[in-house]
Write a structure and sequence with these properties.
heterodimer; A: MetI-like fold; two-stranded antiparallel sheet; 11 helices; flat; B: seven-stranded antiparallel β-sheet; 22% helix
Chain lengths: 314, 381
């Protein structure tokens, strides 16, 4: 007679129950992560989301920032006024100019510098990157003051060196260029550092494999390195689009105050101007809300793009 | 159609010498395995052949051309990396076609070649996928496809199977051997896995600390290890190595130590000499006249075989045989070995000692190191 070998027993009928911890103990065990998170969440709520909500509320009122004056509800009036004023369109256009003007500093030059310095030895590369990065450490207002002297039409170094007599900060057109250049000088080091970090994060095997596969140095850069770098480049684009107006603010405020003839007034400066120079808090809040929504959409699109481009390198 | 000549190749990083004067000839159609423990310089040697690491000294020839200073892209070599290095942003088809694209072949030609290679490697279904959507075995095949697509002079492989699980590894081993036989081209294959080396190689070059220890067929390196290092590296468990002394007794040579008295089966009179006595675990067996007195420490069951780990004098000795061995922990055994299964090594230099019966010449000569211009004369007189 054949007897089948039985499988190891599996208790199917009786449900096996492990001992359960008591409720207070379960709570004590589950609580720590939330307790650790709590300070950050509370501060975020107080300093970011509450002001945001208040700004949204303020944008439907007319108020001149004086505590003695009552706030008057005006509905959508602030938004309507803003849409009708030509200032907003001009400021948006100038913001676009600033963004486009800064892209070479945040993308093109860093990529070129990163690719070139990749071949340098360890210490000289570190020294070089430290040199490029150092402007980032200069306080923007201090940098602006020094640039103010350098660009001075009466004996400034820039005019003497170029042999021109341009009044950089007082002529419309030139002023915008000067603001873009100085901001670019400021952020360049940061962007170079980000690109260098991304480049060193790319596994060297890819370039080695491509070299053995017969690709030239230029082909390796075009077909392998740049595509693998693209998520970082999208990140830098995102930073430039969202932050360039903010990066320029301290320079504009200390060098040109938005002038001459509003030629350096971008949306952030305009917002500040509404709120704190014209004392029209409702308009400032409305402009802030519009910017918040507009830049939020742009950011969402770029984040979506960067996720499409991210190659999981494993 | 390629022969690789490696001549006195040396690489030093600062003061550490990673590869130290290695000379090797890889004949056309050979499957040469560079074998050694991690850090022995085998990958560095392969990268030097590929042109990815510059040489500190020496020369590399492909057929009759000196390629020492030729950039990798002009070397007509294909390499499979340990990480596979599949371009993560390109589909499988574009990965395989990459070498042809770099050579500016036409699109239809590339498509045709890729389809052919995909057919051979059974990748047809996966051509549109990205590398991250592939399993380890599929990635390995794509890496192989990228090497195959342009019919290179020689294939270089850097531990291509080390990221695969055990089962896939053994089937891929067989596939690689089959591929080598079909293509008939030259393979240089780096691994630390002795099973890969023994099963696939036509010749094995064993490296230790940047130097060649032995070059030979798998049978040669296993049956006649040229040094203590080779003997202790190959085999599972590796060869038993015991310090012993060769003495003459009644006109016969014997290896003697505590609990060891092994007749070498050689008639002769020699002054005593310190050696390392080597015996493979599978060549030890209980004997009526014991040569090794062993105490069993532990018995391992490998399924088909059993391995008994014993102590002989102060040395750890293992014995391997078909199950059941009939031994248990604590047993005292008398073990014997046939004279032709005995290996002797010089105690100081570690090189293999061979017996030369002509008394006029050196009776016991250490086998010369590969590449060494002189023959060390360790003689037993």
């Amino acid at each position: 007679m054949f007897v089948e070998v039985a499988a190891p027993p599996r208790p199917m009928d009786k449900a096996i129950k492990a001992a359960r911890p008591s409720l207070p103990r379960a709570i004590r065990r589950a609580a720590p992560p939330y307790l650790y998170l709590a300070p950050a969440l509370i501060l975020l709520g107080i300093w970011v989301y509450r002001p945001l909500a208040q700004t949204a509320q303020l944008s439907f009122y007319s108020w001149n920032l004086l505590p003695t004056t009552p706030m008057e509800p005006v509905g959508l009036d602030n938004y309507r006024r803003m849409m009708d004023s030509p200032e907003l369109g001009d400021a948006l256009w100038r913001t676009l100019e600033v963004i486009l003007g800064l892209l070479p500093f945040s993308i093109v030059i860093p990529v070129v510098v990163g690719l070139l310095t990749r071949r340098l030895g360890g210490r000289s590369r570190a020294v070089y990157q430290a040199l490029v990065f150092s402007p980032m450490l200069v306080a923007p207002v201090a940098g602006a003051a020094v640039w103010g002297w350098l660009l001075d039409p009466r004996g400034g170094v820039v005019d003497r060196a170029t042999g021109t007599s341009v009044n950089w900060l007082q002529e419309s057109g030139y002023a915008q260029v000067a603001i873009i250049m100085i901001t670019g000088w400021h952020v360049l080091g940061f962007a170079v550092l980000v690109v260098a970090a991304a480049l060193s994060g790319i596994n060297g095997d890819y370039a080695d494999a491509a070299a053995l596969d017969g690709a030239s140095r230029g082909q390796i850069t075009r077909w392998i390195t740049l595509p693998l770098l693209s998520p970082t480049l999208v990140f830098l684009t995102l930073m430039t689009v969202l932050l360039s107006a903010q990066w320029t603010f301290p320079l504009i405020d200390s060098l040109t105050q938005g002038g001459p003839a509003d030629s350096t007034t971008n949306v952030y400066y305009l917002l500040w101007d509404y709120g704190f120079r014209s004392y029209d808090a409702g308009m400032g809040a409305a402009a802030g809300m519009l910017l918040f929504v507009g830049f939020g959409l742009v950011a969402a699109a770029l984040v979506w793009l960067s996720e499409r481009l991210a190659f999981h390198d494993n | 159609m390629s022969r690789l000549g490696i001549e006195g190749v040396t690489k030093s990083f600062g003061r550490t010498v990673a590869v130290d004067g290695v000379s090797l000839d890889v004949g056309h159609g050979e499957f040469l395995v560079l074998l050694g423990p991690s850090g022995c310089g085998k990958s560095t040697l392969l990268r030097m052949i590929a042109g990815l690491t510059p040489l500190s000294a020496g020369r590399i020839r492909l057929d009759d051309t000196d390629i020492t200073h030729t950039p990798p892209r002009d070397r007509d070599l294909a390499m499979v990396f340990q990480s596979y290095a599949l371009y993560p942003h390109l589909s499988v088809a574009r990965n395989i076609g990459f070498p042809l694209r770099a050579r500016r072949r036409t699109r239809p030609e590339i498509r045709g070649r890729v389809a052919e290679v995909a057919e051979v490697l059974d990748l047809g279904e996966l051509l549109e996928r990205r590398p991250r959507e592939l399993s380890g075995g599929q990635r390995q095949r794509v890496a192989l496809g990228r090497a195959l697509v342009r019919d290179p002079g020689a294939f270089l492989m850097d531990e291509p199977l080390s990221n695969l699980d055990a089962k896939l590894r053994s089937s891929t081993r067989a596939e690689l051997t089959g591929l080598h036989r079909r293509l008939g081209s030259t393979f240089v294959y780096v691994t630390h896995d002795q099973v890969e080396a023994m099963t696939m190689a036509t010749r094995i070059a064993l490296l230790n600390a940047g130097r060649l220890e032995q070059v030979g067929t798998p049978a040669e390196v296993y049956d006649e290890p040229a040094s203590v290092f080779v003997a202790g590296f190959l085999g599972s468990p590796p060869m038993n190595l015991m310090d012993a002394r060769i003495v003459s007794r009644n006109g016969e040579l014997r290896a003697v130590a505590q609990d060891i008295d092994v007749p070498l089966g050689i008639a002769g009179e020699l002054p005593p000499r310190d050696v390392v006595l080597g015996v493979r675990p599978e060549h030890l067996a209980p004997a009526a006249t014991p040569m090794l007195r062993a105490q069993v420490r532990m018995v391992e069951n490998l399924g088909s075989d059993e391995v008994a780990h014993c102590t002989v004098g102060s040395a750890a000795v293992s014995l391997r045989g078909p199950r059941p061995l009939g031994m248990s922990t604590g047993d005292a055994l008398g073990l014997g070995v046939a004279p032709h299964h005995i290996h002797l090594f010089d105690r100081a230099g570690g090189r293999r000692l061979t017996w030369s019966p002509d008394p006029a010449s050196e009776p016991f000569a250490a086998s010369p190191e590969p590449n060494s211009p002189y023959k060390p004369a360790h003689t037993l007189r």
